[in-house]
Design goal:
heterodimer, A: about 375 residues, alpha/beta, 2 domains, two-stranded antiparallel ribbon, about 15% strand, elongated, B: about 450 residues, mainly alpha, 19 helices, about 70% helix, about 0% strand, globular
Chain lengths: ~375, ~450
């Protein structure tokens, strides 16, 4: 009897194997992984050269991994097993505390920080030194600053990073944002902070730069009609709820025009088309853009601001616009610092270097 | 190609099984040979020609030995197969090691060959040697069918990471073997268990080791966690591969020898080597140690025999001095056990502890990139690296991988097997078995789909 049961069981196993194989061989192919925000590998071309050189084999393996049937479900199964059964505290370096997903990033990458400082100092020496600009720097703490150490996860030495940045940019006035933020100011599933929650941090920046802080009553948090799944959602591969994405609307921001130097076109502060792209967070200043100029016709002064920023700056910069007639937004990952003088005349502006710990600790993309 | 990869599990294996069972009996070895060559070429396209040359060499020498009337000619063809076979191994695996050592000793700058190591060359060379030696000794008949002999040398289940299947052990099955649903089911069961050992356990210990190497907050405890993780990693990796090989063999009607028998439960180093990589140990015993006289010689010669065999064992694992020292370390321990019988009278717990400590230290040496790293790791383990006893990061990883370590420790003992055997005989066991196997297959697939490239450790040998 047992032998018969075993034979049937083995038969079921083989059938399952055959079904998965059948789907792998003949199933439909996907173009994009929405959860991971990336294109999926397709079947590579078979050529004699690629086979003899061995590149076909590697590409074929990538293709099979990307196109495996029920791929996201399998990734979720792995995550659930890792967290639930093996009780591991992170999966693929992503950990979750009170619903907040964050990345383990305990190693202070001195080389990366020195590289970022080298770029900032080059900009200072070539464009800013001897001018009458006012210089500020702010380091944006990532979520781990509020989550890691307090919950027993390996934590980066944030204080060392802050100190190193302040000492390395002694020509700029440091602005401490850590006291104006807490973990609830960040998305559950994303690296970024929530725009509707960072008015306090914007106020700290404005006060330090000697301009009027933004007032909550001037802004209307507006819910976007698009569920938001952050970057950690895909990496954690766990069933997490969609989040609400708000943008802060105001009369001033409605009146602003944004000139994109790459496309040579005007756009709006909030790019609603981006809500339907791979990363809805790109709604803020159209996401990754090399050089933007925000023109504010309702400015209360003729002052100008230049912001060197990463993606955290996309949602923060609109909250700083109110006091400035013109705000230039630079992302050094997409424009070389050597080209700045072609686009910007540095004179009598406030200049803010605002970068997150995530980018400073992994600054290889800066130019 | 890795067994623990999606291309193998869901392309290669279904294709080879389908073709194998569709073709008539006379063509089954041809199917195995062709698919095995594809399997090998997948990772090393250019070295397929070396593989074919190896087959031709040993097949030809086997025929010549069988045909020769005089003993001297038999010996000649045996020597040809040994010299040329080991010559291939020497050129591809050891040439640069010898040149580097020579350059270091003489100050000369003899250029290196810089040849990539053909995957599994140590395994298939030793398997092929067993054929011509056994034919020479008259222990097995000559294999006259080149397809069957080619299938033996290239047989993909054990081609690149063992067990070292001697020709004598599969000679009969090469020409005449039976297949049954029961055997296939048993084979798949063994294969999935091996796959789970590799993917769900060994690869996770590899992750612990990676964390250790990447940490900027090492501690004494972390060094020990690393050393323990590697002990468990290499055991589950290699024994998992052997399980998969044995399981696949059964699917195709072969019965390969066992390669592991709970080595970490040994009470002496001598016993450890009777339980660890058994196919390699018995190969060296039968083809090197005993022909050198074994222990039936003068004491000094016996010591020399032991040192030679263990130096060669070390060298077999890798062309580097740390492997040679690793092998010689075991030679010293084996001699010590022979000369100090009192060791065998110690309480069992002390004997097991001594074996685990010795093996742990040996594997730190084994896994190091060079002596400097090995020295650093050993200094760290014993508190001479100037690092704290414990750091927050160490505790984090210890906590995070605690269940994995418990699984690893338990899995190294016969506890799971004994429990499984007890349940296996019951009706509940019969129902549970396929459920567990399906769950393991799906979990392994999930890890592979989510994970990255993770080669088997023994591929490099």
């Amino acid at each position: 009897m047992n032998k018969k049961i075993r034979a049937i069981g083995a038969g079921i196993l083989v059938v399952l194997w055959v079904v998965l194989t059948g789907f792998m061989w003949f199933g439909p192919r996907q173009d994009v992984s929405a959860s991971e925000r990336r294109p999926l590998d397709q079947m590579p071309d078979i050529t004699l050269e690629s086979i003899l050189g061995g590149s076909f084999m590697g590409e074929f393996e990538d293709f099979t991994l990307d196109q495996f049937p029920l791929r996201d479900a399998f990734r979720t199964l792995k995550s659930l097993y890792t967290y639930g059964v093996m009780q591991q505290k992170d999966n693929n370096g992503i950990y979750i505390v009170d619903g907040y997903a964050a990345k383990l990033d305990a190693k202070l990458n001195e080389t990366s920080i020195n590289y970022a400082l080298k770029i900032f100092n080059n900009i200072y020496q070539q464009n800013l030194e001897g001018t009458n600009v006012s210089l500020y720097m702010a380091v944006v703490p990532d979520k781990g600053y509020y989550l890691a150490e307090q919950n027993g996860y390996p934590a980066m030495d944030y204080e060392a990073l802050f100190t190193k940045m302040e000492e390395g940019m002694s020509w700029a006035t440091p602005i401490d944002l850590t006291g104006a933020l807490d973990v609830t100011d960040y998305y559950y599933t994303d690296t970024h902070w929530r725009q509707e929650k960072i008015l306090d941090a914007a106020a700290v920046l404005c006060e330090a730069m000697g301009v009027t802080p933004p007032k909550a009553e001037n802004y209307t948090p507006t819910l976007m009609d698009k569920p938001f799944y952050g970057v950690y959602y895909g990496q954690a591969a766990l069933p997490m709820d969609a989040e609400e994405l708000y943008i802060m609307k105001s009369r001033v921001l409605d009146a602003c025009k944004v000139y994109n130097h790459e496309t040579k076109r005007y756009q709006r502060i909030y790019d609603m088309q981006k809500l339907f792209g791979s990363d809805p967070y790109d709604v803020f200043l159209s996401g990754a853009q090399a050089l933007l100029t925000i023109e504010n016709p309702k400015a209360t002064s003729d002052k100008e601001l230049i912001v060197f920023r990463d993606s955290f700056g996309s949602s923060m910069t609109p909250l700083l616009v109110e006091n400035y007639k013109k705000v230039t937004v630079v992302d050094l990952r997409y424009i070389s610092s050597a080209l700045l003088s072609q686009y910007i005349q540095f004179t009598n502006q406030d200049v803010l270097f605002m970068y997150s710990t995530l980018i400073l600790n992994s600054s290889g993309a800066m130019k | 190609m890795l067994f623990s990869s999606i291309p193998f599990l869901y392309y290669f294996l279904p294709a080879v099984v389908l073709c194998y069972f569709l073709v008539p009996r006379a063509l089954k070895n041809t199917v195995l040979l062709l698919f095995s060559l594809v399997f090998y070429a997948w990772g090393e396209p250019k070295y397929v020609f070396l593989m074919i040359a190896t087959i031709a060499l040993f097949y030809g020498c086997g025929l010549a030995i069988g045909k020769a009337q005089k003993q001297s000619w038999k010996k000649f063809w045996l020597i040809v197969s040994v010299v040329v076979g080991l010559g291939f191994l020497g050129i591809f695996k050891y040439a640069d090691f010898f040149v580097t050592s020579f350059n270091a000793a003489t100050g000369l700058s003899v250029p290196l060959l810089r040849l990539a190591l053909p995957v599994g060359i140590s395994f298939y060379t030793f398997q092929s040697l067993s054929y011509t030696i056994d034919v020479y000794r008259g222990d097995v008949p000559v294999q006259r069918n080149p397809i069957s002999f080619g299938a033996y040398v290239t047989l993909f289940p054990q081609l690149i990471a063992g067990p070292i299947v001697r020709y004598i052990d599969v000679a009969r099955e090469l020409d005449s073997r039976t297949h049954s649903w029961d055997e296939i089911a048993q084979g798949l069961r063994r294969f999935i268990i091996g796959l789970a050992k590799k993917v769900l356990i060994a690869d996770q210990f590899a992750l612990v080791m990676k964390m250790f190497r990447e940490t900027d907050a090492p501690s004494v405890l972390f060094y020990w966690i690393y050393a323990t993780a590697f002990m468990l990693n290499i055991y589950f990796d290699f024994s998992g591969y052997s399980d998969m090989a044995i399981g696949l063999g059964r699917v195709f009607g072969f019965h390969f020898i066992e390669n592991f028998n709970y080595p970490y439960t040994s009470k002496s180093v001598t016993e450890f080597w009777r339980r660890w990589h058994m196919s390699l140990g018995s190969w060296f015993r039968d083809y090197v140690y005993i022909p050198m006289g074994g222990n039936r010689v003068k004491k000094s010669r016996w010591v020399l025999n032991i040192l030679t065999v263990w130096m060669l064992t070390g060298m077999w694992h890798g062309a580097a001095w740390n492997f040679i020292v690793w092998g010689l370390m075991f030679a010293v321990l084996l001699l010590l056990e022979k000369w100090v019988p009192a060791l065998q009278k110690l309480p069992t717990i002390l004997r097991r502890g001594y074996v685990l400590l010795a093996v742990c230290i040996s594997f730190v040496l084994f896994n190091a990139e060079d002596f400097a790293q090995a020295g650093g790791d050993l200094m760290g383990m014993f508190g001479f690296a100037g690092v704290p006893l414990v750091t927050q990061q160490t505790l984090y990883y210890l906590g995070s991988f605690a269940i994995l370590f418990v699984l690893g420790f338990v899995g190294c003992t016969p506890v799971v097997k004994n429990l499984g055997n007890r349940v296996y005989k019951t009706k509940v066991g019969a129902i549970l078995e396929p459920i567990v196997l399906i769950a393991l297959l799906l979990l392994c697939t999930a890890f592979l789909v989510d994970g990255s490239f993770s080669p088997f450790l023994y591929f490099r040998f």
